Fold this sequence. Notes:
- The protein is an alpha+beta fold and 330 residues long.
- Helix content is 26%, strand content 29%.
- Strand 5 (136-142) and strand 6 form a beta hairpin.
- The site of flavin-adenine dinucleotide has 20 residues, from strand 1, strand 13 and helix 5.
Amino acid sequence: MHKLCNALLEYQLDDFANDIAGLSEEEVVDVYSMGLYSINKIKKFVEKHGNYCNFATRPTLLYSTKKDKNIIKEYEFRKKHNFKCELITENNSLPFPVDTGIYCEDGGCEFDPYLFTKQMIDASSNQQNTYENTCVVDLTRINDKWVCTTSYGQTITCKYVIISTGFQWDWLGEDLCERFLTYTIVTNPQPKITWKDNALVQDSSEPYHYMRKLPDDRIIFGGDDESWNINKDNKNCDKKYNKLLDELKEMFVDFKDEIKVDYSFCGAFASTNNNLGVVGKTEKENLLYFFSCGANGIINAMYAVEIIDDIIQGKENKLAHLFSPLRKDL
Ligand SMILES: Cc1cc2nc3c(=O)[nH]c(=O)nc-3n(C[C@H](O)[C@H](O)[C@H](O)COP(=O)(O)OP(=O)(O)OC[C@H]3O[C@@H](n4cnc5c(N)ncnc54)[C@H](O)[C@@H]3O)c2cc1C
């Protein structure tokens, strides 16, 4: 049975605008605009096909408990380029300690990515050709075509192959980019803890934390990412979940005895130097990659499908070079 599933979508990236490796000021503006465009694309889909995926637009808050020059610089960058936002100073009404922050009224949204995916498949004209539980185990080039073999031995022969297997790329024999583990706790319902418009909250610490309120008043709090290569045993996870709980209690000291963890989980995600995905042409003919990396992987994916579409149709795409698997320093 499908339980509540929730993803946050924001146009800002994992790094501050001034720190995004290899991107010019103009490119950062294009990437931020791409994020807003992707949010709007989901919104339009929901308006057309109905909201069956708990979609809601949300403001975003990026903050620090201290005076943070990087946040101020980020605010100035966004203001200069006409992204709507407001600077939060120490005089604010937030229910947790914030000294410096950027609040963006139309900066994000949340939805259930599982239900959204189902809804996209239902809306697709190609739904009869969508197969679940069908694992591709081999790809071979035969007579200018790609032949994909599934774990049951059936084959699919096609002109183009787009590999979009998430963060499981080991079977390609390539190490594409860095992978991390991220940890999350979900509290018991906390109706008394509220903040303005259920903004999607992220701090600027290293590693950062993110927080949001679920429709049943639980708080979902996560982050504290670490290298994929650490010893992945349960004891390490428990340590991380306890640390997150302590950090959350510190934010809401008045409720520290009431906040309990009802669910916890960790997952892998991947990140590239410029925070974008690995999407586009590879060195092999008609073999394309679609690995949507970064903390905003879903946002990037919503745009990156257009890069794939443009490549297949032989059209230029303004952002293709930023996502290219052939770019240096992934
Ligand atoms: C815990 C966690 C929380 C996250 N939260 C957010 C969030 O709030 N907002 C956000 O924007 N992003 C979030 N992300 C990142 C986001 O989920 C990813 O960036 C995004 O899902 C990647 O999209 P994708 O299409 O590249 O891969 P995926 O969504 O991972 O899809 C890959 C699919 O390929 C299938 N597959 C794998 N191997 C094979 C094979 N050999 N044959 C056939 N099929 C195969 C998999 O089963 C899977 O269905 C989160 C990630 C994690 C781990």
